């Protein structure tokens, strides 16, 4: 077993490769590869479920029409002698003709009653035309829209005619009278089923279809031409829902074998077991069963409906086999119609399959409409013959000696065949033909446990398997089993129901109707759940089922769940170590709280919201808390206080690392906004008033609260920088793309003139001044307005309200939403803008509430918070860094009813770019927006679609997809045959080969590094360059875009987006981390980044908040630790923030202890050390294992200027190498307080990099040259600008980077050129 586990988790490499492979690389953690990163957060697309019959019918009336004329043979039939005589197993010549006719009619009715005992039966024995008409019209009238059966036995009359006529009698029985099938259709109506037991019966079927087509044409004519004579007559009934069963084809006669009954077809349809056993004994193979005779068959003990007896077991097996044949041969929709719509029809068609098998052996072919494929040669008939053989072989001893009956091994063998299919088959294969038999086995207590286990394994194959099982008819079986008290069935039934509800949630209505939720409540309350291989999933699945049930909560169901202590049971499970259980417990709580006030107060009594705080950073807990505050019941002071507490706790997630959590946060806060709409409208009006009328003070003389350094005016730094859309990373070439491209804005706190980066903005005058619809049909808060609201609130009197009392909760939540509207992940910002615009619209369009005049007027329409009890919450200050703003929703929102009245121009407006007028209005659409004024300005409901109480992220439906997919299957990454595994193995071997080959070169020593192997002109001045670790590709960033270049690819694809970046890599596709220099502290992760057509943002979050404004800043610097999955971030802040990318959480803030920015980061996972270079020239070493006050273990202050690079070597005894802008390179040992070596390099240093494998470092200077040094400080290469025709030309160096493994150096210069230099060719 241990060997198998090792094989499962290790790559398949050859012996030679295994020696060289670094197996530690295989075990590295995979970052950003969870399903939430790789797929869209949405539920499964609802499959069209055809299994649930919408038009389920019942055959309520049966007409038995017998035309036997006992004793008189019809003139057109010459019978053999001897001839088949039995009718309904009665010899009509054994009694008087009239008595025989009555007895046969009574027997036929009893035979039908075995299949449909509740139907209304009417016999018509040797009838006239009028009697048939009266019978049929009477039954149709009573049946209404239900089905009527017409059984016709024509053994005593002539064969049907080609004109579509059957025969009956006159009153005196002296003549045969024709009865048109057309008239019969009219009297019987639809839906009906017709059974014809006579010779040449196929003629009736053909005539029936012709007459039905004629009726359809008459209906069309009457519909088109109202004056047509047909239109004046009663409309004929449509025959589309009529079914026909005929004993033989149009040119065939019925069998006359004296050993068979004359009504062989009727016997097959109504007494299948009896005729099947007789037919079996008549075959040659029956001689292999000694002692069995036709007389002995009549003595088989038991009843048909008792499965414990021989006769009952044979009937059970026959039902399973015929159902299986039909399901495997018929199209799915036809199977549903014939075998699942009507019990009597299903029985007749199962028996029709037997009739086809028996009658074909006598050269007679039964006919049906709709026509069935041939089934008489199906392999399952051999299983039936075997079952009959085993049963009959026991008969002599059972009857003569009274021995016990040995049950057939049929079902056990079929379950084994099904198990073989599950374990041995491939994925893409035909469905198992035993599936209908498995459902029949559920009726048996002996095999039920095994059948449920195999059925669960089948359903686990995926939604297609669930759909197949439902189409077979699993649903009523498993619904009935919920009434069982057997505890050993509980895990299996929970698993099966979870699979069903994950694929078709509509089944929850049936569960509620049958009180099925009580079963799953008992499962949760059962402390001694039987152990099974699915144990870890059973309790989460039970909670999932209850969460689905309470989604569409009925009052009775909700009360039953409360009485069953569902909330208290769920709260107890919140501390369970199983994450899947915690996840669904939170979802279940959230769903039961939706619109159910009693459940909310039950949660309040159990302190549910406080218990959920322990899971605050779990997205499902955010969902639960959101529904907790989103209840629309009547408010009290106590409930308002609770809502405020929950809201302030939720606000702590404003900078959570997961966009899924932040999206759910927006939805949770939107529930609060809906509940306290008037309060938020008041706050929104105040913010908008401040935005219009408040002139931003000059920050040159202002120290913002919370900032550690004053803001200094610097004309060199633009006030507003534009970054392209992160939803579609392409150039903004149209108005639509332009509006999308203004999604990320970095506004410097100085509040001075605004200037757009020229690389992204189109000069088209048609660009809208708001970030609304590109078609200029929306009135929304623009990105600029939202950003200004955030900024002016810090100068306004609103600041005095923050943290004073609960009166400021609405203000703080509004500011949280403003911050989320600037989220770096577009879906989060879209949702937040939706909420903001909804309230802004209502606040402006509706009757305006009273303006805020002081802090006490903020919550006039809400109940006052209790002040005598308890204390106010601790002061919480939300500071909002200048972040990248995202656009509001665009084309998905409706047009508003009218243009708002113009707002007065601000007293001291901030200057805008040439595209925006100076008199910006709150809802102004730009140059062309005012042209669309409407006449319906009084309608306040135009923007209801912005947001409603049902705003949702689809998280719950997406979570439910887990149960629809295989949970017992080996994950793809561990399946040695999967594509994912093979790709990972290929990357593992490729990475190993690259490292090994590059190591051989570096070990030989690099003596020169000036061979130019690549040159390319970049669209802009390169600012950052990085090598792909394993592919021949480089990424070059300038202020407007990133260019990805292969050493062989020309021209390179463009990746518009100004940013600094680094690669995340392991045994997964390489990701790109992007961040904007001097930006908002946001981190964005990309995949497919080299594909210009399909780059994709994986995730984005606020890596740093409260970045400090400085004249010269480092922006944001990061370092990635692949071994632990930790991401370190710092820059213009006073901390080093550590993010765990596995959990997407901030795990630590390390104070830098300095008043200057961090300019460089380097980490070592083996020693848990972080080396940071700072702007004041110091190099500081931190041990992240220690507390915040002790973690700084060493400070070196030998540099006197800005540290360009601080590098911590990865070896166990690795040193620290640091370089400042003055060109001094210093080597430090961790155990020594002073440098151990100092080298002086070039002056005017602009860029530097250190090779992580070879002992090399390179310096770039503004003086147009590059120097490459070895570890001893010796210059091995000088790359300079040379004049002359063939001379090498380089500009001032702007950036450079070494390849992580190869001796390659990429260099970018101010003349737009990128070059790659490498070692000598003989080394490569």
UniProtKB/TrEMBL annotation:
<keyword id="KW-0677">Repeat</keyword>
<comment type="similarity">
    <text>Belongs to the WD repeat RAPTOR family.</text>
</comment>
<dbReference type="InterPro" id="IPR015943">
    <property type="entry name" value="WD40/YVTN_repeat-like_dom_sf"/>
</dbReference>
<dbReference type="InterPro" id="IPR029347">
    <property type="entry name" value="Raptor_N"/>
</dbReference>
<dbReference type="GO" id="GO:0030674">
    <property type="term" value="F:protein-macromolecule adaptor activity"/>
</dbReference>
<dbReference type="GO" id="GO:0031931">
    <property type="term" value="C:TORC1 complex"/>
</dbReference>
<dbReference type="Pfam" id="PF00400">
    <property type="entry name" value="WD40"/>
</dbReference>
<feature type="compositionally biased region" description="Polar residues">
    <location>
        <begin position="856"/>
        <end position="870"/>
    </location>
</feature>
<dbReference type="GO" id="GO:0071230">
    <property type="term" value="P:cellular response to amino acid stimulus"/>
</dbReference>
<dbReference type="InterPro" id="IPR011989">
    <property type="entry name" value="ARM-like"/>
</dbReference>
<dbReference type="Pfam" id="PF14538">
    <property type="entry name" value="Raptor_N"/>
</dbReference>
<dbReference type="Pfam" id="PF02985">
    <property type="entry name" value="HEAT"/>
</dbReference>
<dbReference type="GO" id="GO:0009267">
    <property type="term" value="P:cellular response to starvation"/>
</dbReference>
<protein>
    <recommendedName>
        <fullName>Raptor N-terminal CASPase-like domain-containing protein</fullName>
    </recommendedName>
</protein>
<dbReference type="InterPro" id="IPR004083">
    <property type="entry name" value="Raptor"/>
</dbReference>
<dbReference type="GO" id="GO:0010506">
    <property type="term" value="P:regulation of autophagy"/>
</dbReference>
<dbReference type="InterPro" id="IPR036322">
    <property type="entry name" value="WD40_repeat_dom_sf"/>
</dbReference>
<dbReference type="InterPro" id="IPR000357">
    <property type="entry name" value="HEAT"/>
</dbReference>
<dbReference type="GO" id="GO:0030307">
    <property type="term" value="P:positive regulation of cell growth"/>
</dbReference>
<feature type="compositionally biased region" description="Low complexity">
    <location>
        <begin position="871"/>
        <end position="893"/>
    </location>
</feature>
<dbReference type="InterPro" id="IPR001680">
    <property type="entry name" value="WD40_rpt"/>
</dbReference>
<feature type="region of interest" description="Disordered">
    <location>
        <begin position="856"/>
        <end position="944"/>
    </location>
</feature>
<feature type="compositionally biased region" description="Pro residues">
    <location>
        <begin position="894"/>
        <end position="909"/>
    </location>
</feature>
<dbReference type="InterPro" id="IPR016024">
    <property type="entry name" value="ARM-type_fold"/>
</dbReference>
<feature type="domain" description="Raptor N-terminal CASPase-like">
    <location>
        <begin position="56"/>
        <end position="209"/>
    </location>
</feature>
<dbReference type="GO" id="GO:0005737">
    <property type="term" value="C:cytoplasm"/>
</dbReference>
<dbReference type="GO" id="GO:0038202">
    <property type="term" value="P:TORC1 signaling"/>
</dbReference>
<keyword id="KW-0853">WD repeat</keyword>
